Amino acid sequence: MIFEEGRDEYWSEKFNKIDFSGLTLSSKEFEGCTFTECDFSEAIFEHCNFVDCEFAKCNLSVANIKYSKFSEVTFIESKLIGVNWTNLTLSKYALGTPMKFYKCILNDSSFFGLVFHELIVEECKAHNVDFREGDFSRTNLTGTDFSEAINYDIDILENTIKNAKFSRHEAVRLLDCLEIELVD
Question: What range defines the domain where residue 15 resides?
Fold first, then answer.
């Protein structure tokens, strides 16, 4: 068994190359833990709490996050395809503690309606990701490649977009926040 029976709290522990795929993790607390090359694909996180944890080279594809909390969690070179982040605890409120994604694959995921005061998505692939109705104000999008992105709304007065790349056709959307009328 992966977890000791009756034990629900883990502090500063290292989990290496463990297969959690398809398992249900219920009412577990992890603080300061490191998960390296672990497989959480199709796992269910139910009422779990991850604080100051790191997931490195892990697979969390199609993981189901039910009423769980991620605070100060970092994902490095991990696959997070098809994750519905809207099921996080407090999804209707501001998530003040940052989640960080470095060199991850976030395709087909949803952050719909979430409010993040700090969210880092750096050198990641994020195709078909739903950020609609979320609050990502005062976001640093410097150098971000939006050249294949469509239907976005970015307030250029509230966000930093220096050296970002946009397709010519879609870049017109950047003018929406200025409340101007374009004429031919």
Answer: 10-136
